[in-house]
Amino acid sequence: MAKGRRADWTPRGPANPQADMMSRLQKMQEDMRKTQEELEHEIVNVTAAGGAITIAITGHQRVQSIKIDPSLADPSDMGMLEDALVAAVNEAILASQTHSAQRLESVTGGLNIPGLM
Known about the structure:
Elements: H1 17-41, E1 43-48, E2 53-58, E3 63-68, H2 78-108
Antiparallel strand pairs: 1-2, 2-3
Helix pairs in contact: 1-2
């Protein structure tokens, strides 16, 4: 026994730090896969145009439904409806991307590891 070392002393940390890191990375990959699957079914609801348009979109940016208040459907001003729809869809996509990023960040702890996502 080395001089000054207690008889019950054991090194801290895992016996094999590389194996421990690989194990944690594999768990993170599994959690990422599971989260990606869940995002496919998670719905983000977004309202736009003062509440006249409601869009339901998944965490994979797939539009599920669009509801339009009939007052927006003025046949003499279709351009306004088209512009409102474009803005609403873009807002829904952004909301879905933000939701997905937050969910995935909760798995990775903010790490950006190439090939993991």
